[in-house]
Design goal:
- By secondary structure, the chain is mostly beta strands.
- The chain has a single domain (2-330), classed as Porin (Beta Barrel), CATH 2.40.160.
- It is 4% helix and 60% strand.
- The chain has two helices and 16 strands.
- The chain has helices at 2-10, 118-122; strands spanning 19-34, 43-58, 61-72, 83-91, 95-103, 125-135, 138-148, 157-168, 171-182, 195-207, 214-229, 237-250, 253-262, 278-290, 294-305, 309-323.
- The protein has a 16-stranded antiparallel β-barrel with strand order 1-2-3-4-5-6-7-8-9-10-11-12-13-14-15-16.
- A hairpin with a 2-residue loop joins strand 12 and strand 13 (253-262).
- 22% of the residues are buried.
Length: 333
């Protein structure tokens, strides 16, 4: 660590073409989950996350080092481990590539069915690689996240995901594909088996123009999931469902509804509510702050399961960020 700090202190003096950069982030988290259906776990998550990055840039290349720390209210400061931030980034007008440990918040945007929102709380970083290519008609990106390294007692896990969009005027086609591999530890125990989770979504939709004061979209398609436990399940357990979403926002208020109806789904890191065959989530949103450096939103969610049980959830998110990197306008809440 001393050598790393010495490197970052001395590098600015080695050439005049390098620029010193930094980012500081505060993330306030309030999440009350009043769940009674026994599909998902009821809990209240309250806390704050602080993160900082410092580094150097030269032309289209950047290297950063820093740390991210979550403090959950009611716990001790060492209850959640500090996450290291350390990555290389190449970025120009149409291409971006990262390698290392970096924030997922402004990079990875998957449906909650595949990647649940608690990952933002407890696993805020991607540890691996990310690449994105943009064209005038859309974009495509891919990431690989190494979640656990194999030891004698710890299973090896990694996630690979693809996502993108093709658009023509206000019509768009979005695609998602994800793979999660759960391998054995080096010392295998009887009953331990390799598990594979795969799935994807394809949706077509239409949105309002960027100039419109009323922001809205509607999209629909198919959600697919495949799960197997080797030597246990008879091939893959497959699920397919109608997957639709509608969203509208006017000034400080918004409404969003997501529907999955058909088969139940099993994703390793997905929202447990999608285990239900019929699931409708409705979010009522109040955008408290919409500043260049400060974003705040309160969400009241209703979860309707199998057209019978209703669970509720309240979320409050306040993000304050300043520095020389990604503006908050590009961070989705």
């Amino acid at each position: 660590m001393r050598k790393l700090l010495f490197l970052f202190i001395t590098l600015p003096f080695l050439g005049l073409s390098q620029n010193f950069e930094y980012d500081v982030l505060f993330d306030g988290i309030g999440d009350n989950r009043e769940f009674f259906s026994e599909i998902a776990m009821p809990q209240t998550i309250l806390g704050t996350r602080g993160a900082f990055e410092v580094g150097l840039s030269i032309d289209e290349h950047r290297i950063r080092v820093g740390a991210s720390k979550l403090y959950e209210f009611g716990s001790t400061p060492d209850f959640q481990p500090t996450k290291l931030i350390l990555y290389y980034q190449f970025k120009n007008e149409s291409n971006e590539f990262l390698m290392g440990s970096f924030a997922r918040k402004d990079k990875i945007d998957f449906p909650l069915a595949m990647l649940t929102d608690t990952l933002q709380y407890y696993r805020p970083n991607i540890e691996g690689i990310y690449s994105n290519i943009e064209w005038s008609w859309g974009y495509q990106n891919v990431f690989a996240d190494w979640t656990k390294r194999q030891t004698d007692t710890i299973r090896e896990n990694f996630t690979i995901g693809f996502s993108g969009e093709i658009s023509f005027n206000n019509i768009f086609l979005q695609n998602y594909l994800i793979l999660y591999h759960d391998a054995n530890a080096r010392i295998q125990n009887p009953g331990d088996h390799i598990k594979d989770y795969m799935g994807g979504a394809l949706q077509i939709g239409i949105r309002t123009s960027e100039e419109s004061q009323f922001k809205a979209y509607i999209k629909a398609g198919i959600l697919n999931s495949n799960y197997r436990e080797r030597n246990v399940s008879d091939g893959f357990i497959t699920g397919n469902s109608l997957f639709a979403e509608v969203y509208g926002k006017y000034k400080k208020y918004g409404l969003k509804a997501t529907l999955s109806t058909g088969d139940s789904h099993i994703f390793a890191q997905g929202d447990k509510f999608y285990h239900a065959k019929d699931y409708l989530r409705t979010d009522v949103l109040w955008y408290l702050f919409d500043h260049e450096n400060v974003k705040g939103v309160f969400t009241y969610s209703f979860h309707l399961l199998n057209w019978n049980d209703i669970d509720q959830q309240q979320q409050l998110s306040i993000i304050y960020k300043f520095g020389a990197s990604t503006p908050l306008s590009k961070i989705k809440q």
